[in-house]
Every structure is written in structure tokens, then in C-alpha cells.
Write a structure and sequence with these properties.
Elements (H helix, E strand, L loop, with lengths): L5 E6 L3 H13 L3 E5 L6 H6 L1 H18 L2 H4 L10 H26 L2 E4 L2 E5 L2 E4 L2 E10 L3 E3 L14 E2 L1 H5 L7 E5 L3 H12 L3 E5 L11 H13 L3 E3 L2 E9 L2 E8 L6 E5 L1 E4 L3 E3 L6 H4 L22 E3 L10 H15 L13 E3 L4 E6 L2 H7 L2 E7 L4 H5 L6 E7 L5 E8 L2 H13 L4 H5 L10 H11 L6
Parallel strand pairs: 1-2, 1-6, 2-3, 6-17, 8-15, 9-10, 9-15, 10-11
Antiparallel strand pairs: 4-5, 5-6, 7-16, 12-13, 13-14, 18-19, 19-22, 20-21, 21-22
The structure holds flavin-adenine dinucleotide and 1,4-dihydronicotinamide adenine dinucleotide.
The site of 1,4-dihydronicotinamide adenine dinucleotide (NAI) has 27 residues, from helix 7, strand 12 and strand 18.
Length: 465
């Protein structure tokens, strides 16, 4: 009889966990995955990446029709919002994709253990009252919304909501206040602004989108303002009270000072996410958390407890689905004795607004701290495809080491920046110089030519400005 029930037991079926489970099974390891949600796919497929993109895509069409952009192309329509159908297509996308993971589990013979998992010891996990043993346990429990002290979220009521509630609002709020000008606030704020809400974003810091390149953050602020979002930067929310279907927020300058109030029909709390570790029984296996509540691992994703591994949002690094997925593949390979590596220096990040905002590698500020750099920039206004498509906003910026010319970071604001950034990530993964990109033939007319021209601007001159 086998010593353990499973070679690998993964806790959590988000992009980290389900990918780890499938890869482990593909390699030939006997694998189970515990998930307490009714459907597989984690935050990303159920209440994150996928439903938010479904609403962003649909609302973009609505705005193109309502805001006159389509009329400018010679297509005259007067749109009528059918929010139920819009929500319906969102739910369909989620259903199909989460069902797809269930199919992949069956295809790869991954057992889905339905229920909440917790450790009894490092090789024994209880799920729904039943114990399972495994030679290796992968913690992929993800993250959930960081609460704002004193502010109660009630997604069912639909007045003070988190990202999950903001995806499902039953009507367009007249006034929406977003607390936190990060990725969620700007994506979901954009959805409801496009559908007719007056949106105010309250951000504690002096710019939106912390962690991104300084120039990109500034330009993003200008673009969102131009689109009609009101931005209250360097401002903190000190309280939210709800009466019936209305909320009143008290705001104060971040540095302290006179307070003001704002009323809203809906308030989105999006001030970050925190790792899910509660109730896992980590104390039983002697695993402690770092000061940010995360599980620390080595480069191989092994924790300090033998046989216990961790990946995704629950460990340090950007809280992104593709980062979790790559770690899922790597951890399975490492468990099998192969070499699974994730290059954490080259993880692209994309904000799916219009225009999209994307970056990979170092910001200009961080690169400067590291040594001498050269920077090349190219405006989308001078890119023929963006110009033809009436998408003049944004730019591409390529940051390279002054001496070696190796690319250290690439930042884009462009309608299809999320697609464009893949090229930059590939170039950086291969250790490309800006000259390598500049001398690579790019198809014409594409938005990606702006990356080539920004690379040309690093050491010489682009052609089109
Ligand atoms: P999760 O996806 O959080 O999955 C963890 C799973 O573990 C959950 O299903 C949970 O139910 C389960 N679980 C937890 N504890 C237990 C337990 N004890 N027993 C059993 N099961 C358990 N990222 C992007 O890259 N692109 C995007 O466009 C994007 N959009 C987003 C939009 C929103 C609104 C949000 C909230 C997030 C978005 N993200 C996006 C982030 C992305 O969703 C996460 O980075 C990603 O889901 C992390 O994957 P994970 O596998 O680590 O964890
Ligand atoms: P975030 O970290 O991106 O942004 C939170 C913002 O809230 C920050 O700008 C922060 O300064 C601000 N803030 C914090 N406390 C505040 C307060 N009291 N008052 C006002 N502002 C305050 O977090 P967000 O937007 O909640 O998203 C969580 C994570 O989900 C992101 O870090 C990202 O990794 C992931 N995500 C990724 C997406 C993508 O890849 N397109 C889309 C959505 C989420």
C-alpha cells in the first residue's frame, strides 16, 4: 500500500493551485486539489480577472456607441443599456471557464476535494471532515479584500461594496465613490463611469497606481480625469455611514487637516488584498508568516517546513494570475525533481482600462537607483495605427542600461498595451538590448511599432517624430 493517499495535495484551485495540480498530474504524480468554492478557478475566474474583463469589454462598446466614437466612424446608433444582459454574458463567461477547469481536472485525473482544507500535520490535511495524506502539500489559498477599518462591506445591499459587489451592481449608481486608486478601483470605476455613473476616486497617495513608473502614473491621472473621473489624491477616508440606499463619506487630507463629506449611491472599497491563511492550521505545522501576513518560500517555492510548498497571492510578489500560474507550473516541476523557475524580474502587469496601461521590469525611478540608464520614448499619437483608429493617448517608454544597453523596463499606455507588453517581456527574458528591439522587423501598421520606435529612441532617433 502506498505510504500516502497522494503525491501532491494542492489547497486552493485558483490560477496558482489548479495549474499546479494539472501540471503535477501531467508529470505523473497522483494529485488532489481542495477547493471550498462551489466552482474551480479561484478569485481570478470567479470574481476577478474574468468577470471584470467581461464588464470592461461590454462597457467599452457601450461607451463607444453612447459617447460618439462610433458615430465618428460613420456608425450612428443610439444605445440602450440592458444591464441584465450585460451581467448575463459576464456570468456565462465565468460559468464556461470555471466549467473548463472542472473538465481539465477530470481529463488529467486530478481529484477535487470539495471543502475547506486545514492541516493536521505537514502531511495530513482535513477536508470536509475527512483526512487525506500527501507527500507534498502546496498552499495556494490566494488572497481576499483588505477591509477598511470601521467600514462595513455589504455586497448584497449594494451600497458599500468590494470588487465582488462592484461587479454585480443591479443598477448604475448615479454617484460612485471609489476608495483606492489602484488597479481594481480604476478598472471597475471605469466600467460604471462608462455606463453613466459620476465617479470620484479617493486615493491616499499623491498619484494613482502605486508601483508603476512615475511618468505613467502621472499620465494615467491626466487621462482618467479627462475621461470624467474626479480624482481626490493625497486624501484619506476617515468614515463611511450608510442610511438606506445612500452613503456619506468623511474625507481628510492624507497629511491631516480640514475634513469634508461626500455622498454616494455606491462606494467601492479597493485598498488592496491580503493573503488567505486563516483557519489553515499553520500553527500545527510550525509555519509562521512574515510581517505582511505572507508565507515565505525559497526560489523553488518550498517553505521552511519539509514537504510543504506555497505559491500565488499567498506568497510575496505581485498579486497577479499569470504570476500564480507560472509558480504553479514551477512548483509541480520542483516537486517532481525537475527544475521549475519563475523569473520574478520579468512579470508584466496590465491595467485593462481604455487606454490600457502596462509595464514590465523596472520603473525609471528604480532603474536610476541601480545605475546609469538611457530612456527612449515614443508617443502613440505618432503611431500610424493608433492614429488611424483614433487612439491618440499614451506612449511607450523603453529603459535600458547606459553601458550594456540591456533593456531594464518597458512601459506602455496604449489601447492594446496589454498585448504589446508581451513582446517586451519576451525581449527581457532573452536579455535583449534596446538595439535588438530596434532592429527587429515589426509588422506595419501595428501599435507594436511604437515599441520599436521607443527602442530606436534609446540610442538614436525614431523615424516618425
Ligand atoms: P486565488 O485565485 O485567490 O485562489 C485561491 C483559492 O483557494 C480560492 O478559490 C479559495 O476559495 C481557495 N481556498 C482558500 N483557502 C482555502 C482552504 N483553506 N481550503 C480550500 N480552498 C481554499 N490578476 C491578473 O493577472 N489579471 C487581471 O486582470 C486580474 N483582475 C482581477 C480583478 C479583480 C476584481 C480581482 C479581485 C483580482 C484580479 N486579479 C487579476 C488578481 C488575480 O485574481 C489573483 O492574483 C489570482 O487569482 C491569484 O491566484 P491564486 O491561485 O494565488 O489565488
Ligand atoms: P492596489 O494595491 O492596486 O491599490 C490600492 C490603492 O488603495 C493604492 O493606490 C493605495 O495607495 C490605496 N489606499 C490604501 N489605503 C487607502 C485608504 N485608506 N484610503 C484611500 N486609498 C487607500 O489594490 P486593489 O486595487 O485593491 O487590487 C488588489 C490587487 O488585485 C492588485 O494589487 C492587483 O495585484 C490585483 N488586480 C490585478 C488586476 C490586473 O492585473 N489587471 C486587476 C485587479 C486587481
Amino acid at each position: 500500500m502506498a505510504e500516502y493517499d497522494y503525491d501532491v495535495l494542492v489547497i486552493g484551485a485558483g490560477p496558482g493551485g489548479y495549474v499546479a495540480a494539472i501540471r503535477a498530474a501531467q508529470i505523473g504524480l497522483k494529485t488532489a486539489c481542495a477547493e471550498s468554492r462551489e466552482t474551480l478557478g479561484g478569485t481570478c475566474l470567479n470574481v476577478g480577472c474574468i468577470p471584470s474583463k467581461a464588464m470592461l469589454h461590454a462597457s467599452e462598446y457601450f461607451e463607444a456607441a453612447a459617447g460618439g466614437a462610433m458615430a465618428k466612424l460613420g456608425i450612428k446608433v443610439t444605445p440602450e443599456l440592458d444591464l441584465d444582459t450585460m451581467h448575463g454574458q459576464r456570468k456565462d463567461a465565468v460559468k464556461q471557464l470555471t466549467g473548463g477547469i472542472e473538465f481539465l481536472f477530470r481529463k488529467n485525473k486530478v481529484d477535487w476535494l470539495k471543502g475547506r482544507a486545514s492541516f493536521e500535520d505537514a502531511h495530513t490535511v482535513t477536508v470536509a471532515g475527512k483526512s487525506y495524506t500527501a507527500k507534498n502539500v502546496v498552499i495556494a489559498t490566494g488572497s481576499s479584500v483588505t477591509p477598511l477599518p470601521g467600514v462595513e462591506i455589504d455586497n448584497a445591499k449594494g451600497v458599500v461594496v468590494d470588487s465582488t459587489g462592484a461587479l454585480e451592481l443591479a443598477s448604475v449608481p448615479k454617484k460612485l465613490v471609489v476608495i483606492g486608486g489602484g488597479v481594481i478601483g480604476l478598472e471597475l470605476g471605469s466600467v460604471w463611469r462608462r455606463l453613466g455613473a459620476e465617479v470620484t476616486v479617493v486615493e491616499f497617495l499623491d498619484q494613482l497606481l502605486p508601483g508603476m513608473d512615475g511618468e505613467v502614473r502621472k499620465e494615467a491621472g491626466r487621462i482618467f480625469k479627462k475621461q470624467g473621473m474626479e480624482l481626490k489624491l493625497s486624501t484619506k477616508v476617515t468614515g463611511v455611514s450608510v442610511k438606506g440606499k445612500k452613503a456619506t463619506l468623511t474625507l481628510e487630507p492624507a497629511a491631516g487637516g480640514e475634513s469634508e463629506t461626500l455622498t454616494a449611491d455606491a462606494v467601492l472599497v479597493s485598498i488592496g488584498r491580503r493573503p488567505n491563511t486563516e483557519g489553515l492550521g499553520l500553527d500545527k505545522i510550525g509555519l509562521t508568516l512574515n510581517p505582511r501576513g505572507q508565507i515565505e518560500t525559497g526560489h523553488d517555492f518550498a517553505t521552511k517546513v519539509d514537504g510543504v510548498w506555497a505559491i500565488g497571492d499567498v506568497i510575496p510578489g505581485p498579486m497577479l494570475a499569470h504570476k500564480a500560474e507560472d509558480e504553479g507550473i514551477a512548483v509541480a516541476e520542483n516537486i517532481a525533481g525537475l527544475t521549475g523557475i519563475v523569473n520574478h524580474d520579468v512579470i508584466p502587469g496590465v491595467v485593462y482600462t481604455m487606454p490600457e496601461i502596462a509595464g514590465v521590469g523596472l520603473t525609471e525611478e528604480a532603474a536610476k537607483e541601480r545605475g546609469a540608464i538611457k530612456v527612449g520614448k515614443f508617443p502613440m499619437l505618432a503611431n500610424s495605427r493608433a492614429k488611424t483608429n483614433h487612439e491618440p493617448e499614451g506612449f511607450v517608454k523603453v529603459i535600458a542600461d547606459a553601458e550594456s544597453d540591456r533593456v531594464l523596463g518597458v512601459w506602455c499606455i496604449a489601447s492594446v498595451a496589454g498585448t504589446m507588453i508581451a513582446e517586451a517581456a519576451l525581449a527581457m527574458e532573452f536579455g535583449a538590448t534596446s538595439e535588438d528591439i530596434a532592429y527587429t522587423c515589426h509588422a506595419h501598421p501595428t501599435h507594436s511599432e511604437a515599441i520599436k520606435e521607443a527602442a530606436m529612441a534609446v540610442t538614436g532617433k525614431p523615424i516618425h517624430i
